[in-house]
Amino acid sequence: MTIIAEVPTPTRIVFGTDGWRARVADDYTYENVRRCAHGVARYVVDRGETAKGVVVAYDRRFASEHFAIAAAEVLLAHDIPVAYAASAVPTQMSSYEVVERGAAAGVVITASHNPWTDNGFKVKSPSGSAAGPEILAALEATIAENGGTGIPRRPFAEAEEAGLVERYDPFVGYERFVRRSLDLDALKAADVSVLVDPMWGSGAGWISRLLAGGRIRVTEIHQERNPYFGGVNPEPIRPNIDEALGIIAGGGYDLGLLLDGDADRAGAADERGVFIHQLQVYGLLMYYLLEHRGMRQDVVKSVNTTSMAERLGERYGVGVHETPVGFKYVGPKMIETDAMMGGEESGGYGFGMHLPERDGIYADLMLLDLFLREKAAGRWPASRSIAHLHEIAGGSFYQRVDLHIERSGYAAFKDRLKVALDEHAPDGFGGMPIVRTQPLSTADGVKWSIADGSWLLIRWSGTEPLVRVYTESTSQDLADAAIAVGEALVRAV
Q1: Count H helices, E strands: the chain?
Q2: What is the DSSP string of 440-467?
Q3: Same fold, 20-169 and 187-393
Q4: CA 76 to CA 99: how far, in whole Å?
Q5: Is residue 102 helix, strand or coil?
């Protein structure tokens, strides 16, 4: 009997809040990576920017360097020169290299904070920011036209021998770039002890190296490459970073600085090992720029980020712009408004004087600078500085619950959830009525607010099969009530 194998339907590739991500060997294959690279190549060629080249980078995930070469070979086949990372580097280093070189685009092989089983494909615009909706729409259209057949490739070694590949190490240039807006020597001279946890990712060694040679004492854990990420998702939130928090709680440290798997997200802990949540970090960084750096430009925040931004904006007289979730919205809005800062709930923060893209390393260094300046002002240790932030910006009791959905049934679940959010929307939480219902402009969730500014948000992810329930409230009791209402609504679907 003859068995005729069915020709598989090409994977539908859609770029979510920050790139396309999928499970390795399932949808994330060399064939699909080449399809993505072909989309980038066609975009560059159609714009007549072939000679500008494309920057290619990769993280420490399983086979990332091999997927990066597969992408580079497609670009090279279109006669596009490639600047290829000499080793795994933080995602934002591709943004830096794109800007410094005046490249047409950047490609990064990374799944950021996703589970270790995944990998991904990010695209950077010529400004260094995440590629915006217009660019991504063009890429997706090209990718959809090609099911993986007939994509040209030029062997990497051959192209390198012909001078079309340049291997780069961004550290020296990046350090020089950072020094334009941050006094690294002052940070090095500080008499403090810092614990750094890069979560086995591509940010390992970067903060330690940038702060080396001074009085400051930096201890770094989890520096080795581990594509399993120690069995946790490499996202710098609890419980993933509980080991680091425990070490700090044991004494001997003034501050903890945390990074995610590709180092574009920042996290922190105070001297007691208490996690400083992402919304607090946004507030601290905004306060730092306003109070200690004397800046008065507008700021940008995603819809699921802190309401402290509005209160600080009112106090210091700066505008606050809100965007959908994802730096593909935050970055372009920063450029449009000449913002001094942009950020999102996930722990990604970008800065106008630096890059309009998330940079966890730079954000962590700015946090360190903030706490040292607060120390000089008599607000020390770090926990005292955080208390001062809340004295002037109000409370921020933040919670987030991630509800994982079976990947195969995720699309159908989202359809049912959309109906549930409309038909069974909450009328309040904590005994207080909803005063504002805000459907997200990207049609991927809904946000409800009560009179004191506390809010509840339910949103389904564009990069993982999960639904997130968030709240920021003015008290812990309100936060508990809000998260319970949101979680119950999702679980009833």
Answers
A1: 16, 21
A2: -TTSSEEEEEETTS-EEEEEE-SSSSEE
A3: yes
A4: 20
A5: coil
CATH architecture, domain 20-169:
3-Layer(aba) Sandwich (3.40)
**According to DSSP H, which parts of 262-408 are helical?**
278-287, 308-316, 327-337, 360-376, 382-393
Phi/psi of residue 137, nearest 5 degrees: -65, -40
Closest CA to 36 of 17, 13, 54: 13
Residue given tokens 């903890």 in the structure block: 256
The 10s digit of each residue's pLDDT in 24-54 is 999 999 999 999 999 999 999 999 999 999 9
Residue type, 413: F
Sign (positive or negative) of CA dihedral 314, 320, 324, 325: negative
DSSP letters along 25-94, please? TTTB-HHHHHHHHHHHHHHHHHTT-GGG-EEEEE-SSTTHHHHHHHHHHHHHHTT--EEEESS---HHHH
Tens of pLDDT along 140-191?
Answer: 999 999 877 789 999 999 999 999 999 999 999 999 999 999 999 999 999 9
The CATH code of domain 397-491 reads: 3.30.310.50
Specify which residues 279 forms β-bridges with.
none
Q: DSSP of 196-252, one letter per residue?
A: EE-TTSTTTTHHHHHTTTSS-EEEE---S--TTGGGS-S-SSTTTTHHHHHHHHTSS
Structure tokens at 130: 């995440």
**Tokens 């294959």 label which residue?**
29
Q: How far apart are CA 179 and CA 198, in angstroms?
A: 22
Q: What CATH number should be reported for the domain whose range is 187-393? A: 3.40.120.10
Chain-centroid distance of CA 402 in Å reads 17
Ordered by start, the domain boundaries in the chain are 20-169, 187-393, 397-491
φ and ψ of 35, to 5 deg: -65, -40
